[in-house]
């Protein structure tokens, strides 16, 4: 059975990610594993739980136990194992290593975490995890309050790598009964570039038809593919935007380097980043 890994630092962002992770674990019939990374062996009390302010708690393990007990109705993995690991060291390295050696299907994490707003400027652990992980990563900024994943926006550009996310997006959409918006995005009027994008969109359409997955198609030209994708996703009230972690560096690329960070930091909609492997 597949496993979703959710980093938990007891911040609001990480708990929002946990709820989304449990929803997906139940839809995809996955195990769910939480991971908490300590910077040192010394126990530091997490700041988030007002409900536990009068509790005497000595270890991170006790916090996990209290978390599960306190919110057992919210935190229920129906068909898989729900457990946790505690690691010490570099936050993003330990998360990436746990995902790799624990054979995680996906990482799902808060975009900022405990250190919050400052990470917008210095580069968040979320971006480092996305950049280094060998499995797909979903980053979450706000509460998953709909209770359903209905709409996925999948931008398609002219790079050959852009198509590699199609099977993974299709798997999630099929299990969640979501509609995929195949969104062609370009920053040029070059007919060859537009023709390539339209061809890739047709390939995605054929794949989704074969899998009986609901989809719609649209194509947009803008000054910035990232902003075009975000604007469209907001218009259709998307629940998830699926991108590639890395794409070829060119005048038409999307989400390369700082663009990936821009997406994670700028989007209130969860971002699914699929590695280019």
Account of the protein in words:
By secondary structure, this protein is an alpha/beta fold. It has two domains: 3-140, Rossmann fold; 151-274, Rossmann fold (3-Layer(aba) Sandwich), CATH 3.40.50.620. Helices cover 37% and strands 21% of the residues. The protein has nine helices and ten strands. It has helices at residues 12-28, 60-70, 91-101, 119-122, 125-132, 166-176, 191-210, 225-235, 258-266, and strands at residues 3-7, 31-38, 82-88, 106-110, 137-140, 151-156, 179-186, 215-221, 240-244, 271-274. A ten-stranded mixed beta sheet has the order 3-2-1-4-5-10-9-6-7-8, sandwiched between helices. Mean pLDDT is 83; it is low at 115-123 and 247-257. It comes from Labilibaculum filiforme. InterPro entries: Rossmann-like_a/b/a_fold, Universal_stress_UspA, UspA. Belongs to the universal stress protein A family. This is UspA domain-containing protein. It holds the Pfam family Usp.
């Amino acid at each position: 059975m597949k496993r979703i890994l959710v980093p938990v630092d007891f911040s609001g962002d990480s708990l929002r990610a946990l709820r989304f992770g449990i929803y997906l674990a139940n839809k995809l019939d996955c195990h769910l594993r939480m991971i908490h990374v300590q910077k040192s062996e010394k126990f530091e009390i997490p700041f988030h739980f007002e409900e536990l302010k009068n509790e005497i708690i000595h270890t991170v393990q006790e916090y996990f136990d209290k978390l599960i007990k306190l919110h057992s109705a919210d935190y229920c993995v129906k068909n898989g194992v729900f457990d946790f690991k505690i690691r010490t060291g570099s936050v993003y390295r330990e998360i990436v290593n746990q995902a790799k050696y624990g054979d995680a299907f996906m990482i799902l994490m808060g975009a900022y975490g405990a250190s919050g707003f400052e990470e917008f400027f210095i580069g968040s652990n979320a971006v480092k995890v996305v950049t280094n992980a060998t499995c797909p990563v979903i980053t979450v900024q706000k509460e998953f309050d709909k209770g359903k994943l209905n709409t996925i926006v999948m931008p398609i550009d002219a790079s050959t790598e852009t198509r590699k996310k199609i099977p993974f997006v299709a798997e999630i959409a099929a299990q969640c009964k979501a509609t995929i918006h195949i969104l062609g995005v370009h920053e040029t009027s070059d007919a060859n570039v537009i023709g390539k994008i339209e061809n890739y969109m047709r390939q995605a359409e054929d794949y989704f038809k074969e899998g009986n997955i609901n989809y719609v198609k649209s194509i947009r030209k803008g000054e910035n593919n990232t902003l075009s994708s975000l604007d469209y996703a907001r218009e259709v009230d998307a629940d998830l935007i699926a991108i590639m972690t890395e794409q070829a560096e060119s005048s038409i690329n999307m989400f390369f380097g700082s663009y990936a960070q821009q997406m994670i930091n700028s989007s209130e909609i969860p971002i699914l980043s699929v590695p280019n492997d």
